[in-house]
Every structure is written in C-alpha cells, then in structure tokens.
Amino acid sequence: MNIKTIPPYLTNAVQNSTSAGKPGAQEKAAVGNGVSSDRVQLSKDYQDLAQAQKTITGTSEVRTEKVQQIKDQLESGNYQIKPNEIAGKMLDEVI
Question: What is the pTM of this model?
Fold first, then answer.
C-alpha cells in the first residue's frame, strides 16, 4: 500500500469542513428536540472562485471588433506599435 502526502488544499478543506460541522446552539437545540438538520457552509475561497467563474462565463473571450480593426490596420500597413505604452502596461501588471 502506497500512502501519499495529502495536498494542502485538501487538508484545508477537511479542516474547514470539520470546524464547520460542529453544531452551534441552534443545531444543538434541534438535535435535542429530536429534529435532525444538516448544514453546508462553503468556504470564502470557493465563493470567490464561483463568482469569478460567473463573471468569466458572462464575458466574451474575443473582442471581434477590436480584432477586425487590428487586422485591417495590419493589412493596410497602418498598424502603429507603441513600445513605451506596451512596456508601461506590462510593468503595471507586474507591479
């Protein structure tokens, strides 16, 4: 049998689920009354990821108008490269 190390993202998920699984006062009261209740709580990271995925899904990956504009400029020989602007934007993304 080969046991491998558990990746940190899985151990964090297990720790979050065990701490989230501890019943609060309301759940304890419900269990004491003979009523069973289950509860699921998603981590903040998962909620952020789900929101980002919704945002990405709602946007187009290709801006066809912009692509056509650049294509036309390239074909006509009028496309101007501005190295200082490109370098500035690259630095902005890094910083």
Answer: 0.30
